[in-house]
Write a structure and sequence with these properties.
Structural class: alpha+beta
Helix content: 25-40%
CATH class of the largest domain: Mainly Beta
Distance between the termini: 56 Å
CATH architecture of the largest domain: Roll
Strand content: 15-25%
Shape: globular
Largest sheet: 10 strands, antiparallel
Number of strands: 23
């Protein structure tokens, strides 16, 4: 690639950052660090609230790349990261209450994947499994790429995945590589084992859940919606689907999301209906891309990008695909289920919602929403389904998106050290910089709040603060921030549509908190005190290594 072309691509990529949608938000931070000192998310743990690491060996179970959700779950289970629940009554919302209890006990990032093997739904016991928290644990970030986690450090495991993906980006001019998908014979495709047509279909007979009592009904909330547009090309994204009847479900892409643009473009062309294939039970990389902006589309008329080719490139193996039954839409062949249908673009829209959204609050009821008639369902025998316990869990692995955007952010903020958006709170953004002069903290934060719709609260930190550790972040705010001067407020900017605090839909005020040490030119002390930990590391540089060697078994087993 010529230097000029590469530079133009990077500039275009930066422009894309300033137009991030809710889908981008799911990827960029999906949720951002909690400001409250009382938040339950623990700091880094050694042998605490995670799988038993004594005698841990790598290469248990199936290994990356994973073709199916079944292979992925088998790998997680072999590494002690799956909790099976034989039977649970969701009519009494026990699955949701158990999920909240689990994250209260183990935290969002150290909770296992949960498999509900049988569930009571609408008065009927239905065979599962239904899987929650499919990629929630810190160690998933390594296992997804075939990397051995650091079993003694959640944070080190995450940084290991970030480094791996950063190297992948560096080797491919700042973008993820692509391997085009490979068509599989229909007779060999697992997702075609069972084919249901027309009145054979009753989507309510599958254990799709009403997750919260206030939800508008049962939802399919982990489906990847595959569409094709003559100009925009193929696309898939994750949007909630309210179950309205045996053959009718909602389709809920927001106005700035690609599938919404495709539906509106088809309507403007005078088309009467649009085909959608909804894929459920995806491999972990396809699932991650479905909810993130890994594929950057540039300009007003972006070139088509095959996101399945990116999934193949990232995992180093092509995705097997097969043609849908009722359209030419190609879908992952190893999926658990494919729901095919049409959206009537001439019919009036219908009400939809509400739904407990990713902020952890009830989303709005919509007077008008797209609805889809189901014409065909294909699935594996005894399909495995996923449910997103939205606002309670980590949606997918996040290192790929954070690696991509760290690279782009560094072009705007050269002294950026790290940024992170944990998934247990929306709208708060942690970033660490190598501060070398006065004013750099606010300057860096302003660039983020002005360009990123997801960034509502940006906390800027010194490079010695671990952005993954909420305890360190809050401690830095308490010890280094002076509220009088070290802040910047943007009265109104683009925000996430699901933010319950917004007085105006999609618009929000924003704030930068400069929690870096203040230089004398900023009104700070001539000599800012060092932290107790820094003094320990300086005065006894071997202490941590010696404790790791001598006391690690004690620390690992303290709960037993």
């Amino acid at each position: 690639m010529a230097d000029s072309e590469q530079k133009q691509n990077e500039q275009n990529s930066e422009a894309t950052l300033s137009r991030m949608s809710r889908r981008d938000a799911l990827a960029l931070t999906s949720a951002l660090a909690a400001l409250s000192v009382g938040a339950s998310e623990p700091a880094e743990a050694i042998g605490h609230r995670g799988p038993d690491k004594a005698g841990k060996k790598f290469n248990k179970g199936p290994q990356a790349p994973f073709d199916s959700i079944r292979d992925w779950v088998a790998c997680l289970e072999a590494n002690g990261l799956v909790m099976r629940v034989p039977r649970i009554d969701q009519d009494r919302y026990h699955a949701t209450a158990l999920f909240f209890s689990m994250t209260d006990m183990y935290s969002t990032y150290a909770s296992p994947t949960v498999m509900f093997e049988e569930l009571k739904v609408d008065g009927e016991w239905m065979k599962g499994p239904v899987i929650g928290n499919i990629s929630g644990h810190w160690f998933c970030e390594c296992l997804a790429w075939g990397l051995e986690p650091d079993w003694n450090s959640y944070h080190n495991s995450y940084w290991k995945a970030m480094d791996y993906l950063g190297d992948m980006l560096e080797a491919n001019s700042g973008q993820y590589p692509q391997i085009p998908p490979v068509a599989m014979e229909r007779s060999e495709a697992p997702c075609k084992e069972v084919v249901l047509k027309g009145d054979e279909i009753d989507i309510t007979s599958f254990p799709f859940l009403k997750t919260n009592p206030a939800d508008g009904g049962r939802y399919i909330n982990t489906g990847s919606h595959f569409m094709v547009d003559p100009e925009m090309g193929p696309n898939f994204g994750t949007y909630r689907c309210q179950v309205r009847g045996p053959r009718e479900i909602g389709v809920n892409p927001e106005p700035n999301q690609t599938n919404n643009k495709m539906l509106m473009a088809a309507k403007e062309r005078g088309e009467k209906y649009a085909h959608i294939s909804i894929v459920i039970g995806q491999d972990p990389i396809t699932w991650m891309i479905s909810g993130t902006r890994i594929a950057l589309r540039f300009g007003k008329n972006p070139k088509p990008i095959d996101e399945l080719a990116i999934a193949g490139g990232m995992r180093g193996k092509a995705i097997d695909v097969v043609k849908s039954e009722d359209s030419d839409i190609m879908v992952p062949a190893h999926a658990e289920m494919v729901i095919e249908g049409t959206v009537d673009l001439t019919a009036p829209m219908k009400p939809e919602g509400p739904f407990g959204e990713m902020f952890g609050y009830l989303g709005q009821f919509k007077e008008e929403n797209f609805w889809m008639t189901i014409n065909t369902v294909t699935h594996r025998k005894n399909p495995w389904l996923m449910n997103a316990f939205t606002g309670m869990q980590k949606g997918s692995i996040t290192a790929p998106f954070e690696s991509l955007y760290t690279r782009f952010l560094r072009r705007q903020i050269p002294n950026l050290v790290a940024y992170h958006g944990p998934q247990y709170s929306m709208g708060v953004f942690h970033m660490a910089i190598d501060k070398t002069g006065p004013g750099q903290g606010l300057e860096a934060g302003k660039k983020v709040v002005s360009g990123f719709g997801v960034a509502k609260i940006v906390i800027v930190l010194d490079k010695d603060v671990n952005v993954l550790d909420q305890r360190e972040v809050i401690a830095a705010v308490g010890a280094r921030w002076q509220p009088k001067d070290a802040f910047y407020v943007l009265d109104e900017g683009g925000g996430l549509f699901t933010d319950p605090s917004q007085p105006k839909y999609g618009r929000t005020s924003k704030i930068v908190i400069d929690a870096t040490r203040k230089w004398p030119e900023e009104g700070g002390k001539e000599n800012f005190a060092k932290s107790n930990r820094a003094l320990l590391e300086e005065g006894a540089p071997d202490a941590f290594a010696e404790v790791q060697a001598e006391y690690m078994n004690l620390l690992r087993g303290w709960m037993s």
